[in-house]
Amino acid sequence: MADIQSSCAYCGVGCGLTISHYSSQTLAESNLSLTLKGDSSHPANFGHLCAKGEKLLLSLEQPNTLRYPKLRSGKPLDWDAATRLIADKFQQTIQQHGPDSVALYLSGQLLTEDYYVANKFAKGYLKTANVDTNSRLCMSSAVSAMQRAFGEDVVPGCYQDFEQAEVIVLIGANTAWTHPVLFQRILAAKQTNGCKLVVIDPISTATAKQADLHLAVCPGADLRLFVGLLGYLADNHCLNHKYIQNHTEGFETVVDNAQRVSGCLATLADALGVSKIELIEFYHLFSSSKKVLTASCQGVNQSVIGTDTTNAIINCHLALGQVGQEGAGFFSLTGQPNAMGGREVGGLATQLASHMGFSEQEQALLSDFWQCGHVATKPGLAAVEMFDAVAKGNIKAIWIMGTNPVVSLPESDKIAQALSDCPFVVVSEVSPDSDTAKLADVLLPAQGWSEKCGTVTNSERCITRQRGFIAPKGQAKPDWWALSQVAINMGFSGFDYPNNAAIFSEFALLSQTVNQAFPHKRFNLGGLAGLTKAQYDTLPPTQWPVTTQQQIGQQHQRVFADAQFSTSSGKAQFIAPANSFEALNHHEVNSLHRKPLTLLLNSGRSRDQWHTMTRTGHIASLRANVPEPTLSLHSRLLKPFKLVAGELAQIQSATGSSFSLARVLVDDDLPTNLANMSMHWSEQFSLTKGVNQAIDSRFDPVSKQPGFKCQPVRLLPV
Ligand code: SF4
User: Fold this and answer.
1) Element (H, E) at 511
2) Which domains does the chain have, with CATH numbers?
3) ipTM metric
4) Residues near ligand 1 (Cβ within 6 A)
5) What's the pLDDT tens digit per position in 345-370?
6) pTM here?
7) d(C-alpha 575, C-alpha 253), whole Å
8) Which of 47, 322, 514, 634, CA to CA, is 20 to 30 A from 682?
9) What are residue 716's DSSP bridge partners?
């Protein structure tokens, strides 16, 4: 049969895949009859894949898959009984305690169609905006910053910009490991165009080792670095005054403070932990190049000042008039394959579908479109707040889909306790073995990658069809279908979708309707509204905004190149940091001197693993490099912490309340105030709890994204 084109399940690069069957079956019963390679026609990867992507078929050989709905006792249920039970429990809970006593916690693994139905169900019909997603842990600081600066959650650029830039600045991003195929494009551009690569990271990562300039700034110092850069641009007469004057607002609110910071570069360099020569080299490269592209990832986002830091970066690009230009601007690297698709349909608790907020006009439009009376009237609880509410007993019924918060959220031991105590927990999953699935009162078998069909949107706003190519195992169903059945059982209309194509078409029509009412918004899928199922099934990768059918298949589109932004004035906004620099004087670093045995911990992805390893932990070839949790630190730290290379260390939270274990590795490339550890491990795949036990729950006040990085912890020998 014909090859099937789909997309990778792992990261926001969104590589296209070609899956070939060498059996004659319509849908293979076993992946043994399949081969997979990169899709040479896909604009994200042009046929290339990374090691994880190449081994995707091995991820299907899960040791244990969930094949039918079941209760915590193990008693099987049929789908009808399961969805009626969920409908009854949610209905009773809302009747007794109000709409905000229930919640949905979603995942960047869901397809846009799943996300859309979940949001319609909760925000439209349950009347609660308690719908958040693990994307909150990933890029919500970038979202908030783009909303503040541009008026909308829009990544202006595209991947082609990485090939057209004169200078690429990667900040808080180990792209070589986390977005490998895009990094290969960057390295190729370096070779062919001679573009300069600057990496800003406290750690000498695999990415930093390829940089022309590595600025190993102190953890948490990136905000000051970019505020200083704006001051340097002003000090050295590099500003694009015409652009600032005609297309932005608020410059005067940021420039004085910026020039105070850049006033003495020696003092600034000292505060940043770099040499003055390195600092000037970076500032000179940035200010003297016509095309600078800055891409940020979790090192910026997962910080309690992540939104301000991202705005400080955007401020510099606005000051040069470099937003949405070829090879220039700000780019947010997204962690998950469909984090952006989730945002489009209102996957975050703080927004409504199609990039709408909670104004009365926006509520009215959505209520009318969904014919649901009224939608939720205020933002719901973001991830950390949501599970706090579960712990406090304020949320009494929660449905978790395709994610493992018991491992992935900070202070994760509290999450397990909260779910254990919660009166009603539903988990939709592929496998019953995740730490979260084990706490479900009702466990629903979800179709996984390879089985389900729908769309995802990658970091460059490109929508790609994900297509099923094996028969669903057992009674596994799409998440949108399970949600719709519960909605129908609760008596709600508008959920009798015949297929995923109908859901996508409805969403595209909504985006068109929103765009007609709010023409300054740039998100628009109007050209995809009314697609037939056949057109949807053959939809080629298409970048939004797509306003007409003629634009289907378009690529390399930039937004805001016309300097018309989505704000009410049409002008981009310079944003000043909320805190003064005196208050931002790296309080974690300073506090270290007062707490014995305390060090800053950085946690992040390792090259070959994915999230909490539920999809990759059983693949021997991916575990071969790093078979157990490891903690890397500089050899000079061994003695003061009484640690021995090769032995185990205990990583405790700063309060000493909980800990995990890891084997000590020496890495003299690391700074002497920072240890580094993978975020992936949990008791499911090792003998110890995950590192997030030791991570505190503080979050950015604007984006509500937890500050996973730069955490003070205690290290003890075992
Ligand atoms: Fe998959 Fe990302 Fe690797 Fe591409 S770069 S193959 S999307 S994990």
Assistant:
1) helix 500-517
2) 4-60 (2.20.25.90), 70-138+337-551 (3.40.50.740), 140-333 (3.40.228.10), 587-717 (2.40.40.20)
3) 0.99
4) 8, 10-11, 13-15, 45, 49-50, 52-53, 179-181
5) 999 999 999 999 999 999 999 999 99
6) 0.94
7) 8
8) 634
9) 650
